[in-house]
Design brief:
249 residues, alpha/beta, six-stranded mixed β-sheet, 9 helices, 14 strands
């Protein structure tokens, strides 16, 4: 039985990921319920689990309503965020290996954007058609990283180094479509790097026809993500501060 991966764009720039295997589905960071419910019901799929990377409303907002429709669905979230994600049924932590849709999923601590941010990684050997896949929430973006709301530059540097060690073909399924803006900023910082300009052109062409730039890949992020390339936490912090203040021309 093979898996498939689907992206549901919602709100201004959120992306809800749906992982389907047979007649069952898993949803990652549902910002809202109705688009997910409609999508699943149209395909007669049963929601068996929700994976939550962190507690922000645009990631957990749809979960309570989805649980009303599919009350047996498990909710996997950080055990360190039980107060802010109170409807979780399977608390997890860094290093845990859980089984989802019959597939091994590794839990990674990537705290920085929030103090209890986790990511979910599916190794390739588990599902050769889809994997390897990383559901990273707001830690790693296309050509970017999350803002440091509750964590430090040191934590983000450690998190990105951990993710950079994943296989280069790993699909990066982040929760926001920020790639074009991130690349515009990156090209301004390093105008002589053609790999950045090339990726920006490709993303702009995709976006101009309504396409998504996601999923990215770990290999692509290694080559074009300035935050992932930062050699020290100090450098990453300076880049993050600059990006926080930057506005596109």
């Amino acid at each position: 039985m093979h898996s498939s991966l689907h992206a549901l764009p919602v709100l201004q720039d959120n992306v809800i990921w749906v992982w389907v295997r047979g007649a069952e589905a898993v949803v990652i960071d549902p910002a809202m319920a109705s688009p997910v419910r409609d999508w699943l019901e149209q395909r007669q799929l049963n929601l068996v689990a929700v994976l939550q990377t962190h507690h922000h409303a645009d990631h957990i907002g749809g979960t309570p309503e989805l649980l009303k429709r599919w009350p047996k669905a498990e909710v996997m979230a950080s055990r360190d965020d039980r107060e802010r994600i109170p409807f979780q049924t399977m608390p997890v932590r860094d290093g845990d290996r859980i089984t989802v849709l019959g597939v091994q999923v590794d839990v990674l601590d990537v705290a920085a954007h929030t103090r209890a941010h986790i990511a979910f990684f599916i190794p390739k050997s588990q599902d050769a058609v889809m994997g390897p896949v990383l559901f990273c929430g707001d830690t790693l973006f296309g050509a970017g990283c999350g803002r440091l709301f509750e964590g430090t530059a040191e934590q983000m540097h450690q998190a990105l180094r951990k993710l950079a060690e994943l296989p280069e073909e790993t699909k990066v399924c982040c929760a926001h479509e920020y790639t074009e803006a991130n690349l515009k900023w990156a090209v301004e910082q390093r105008p002589d790097e053609t790999v950045l300009a090339d990726r920006l052109r490709e993303v702009q062409a995709l976006r101009s026809t309504g396409g998504l730039s996601l999923p990215s890949s770990i290999g692509l992020e290694r080559r074009t993500n300035l935050f992932m390339q930062a050699k020290t936490a100090t450098e990453l912090g300076e880049l993050r501060n600059h990006k926080d203040q930057w506005r596109p021309a």
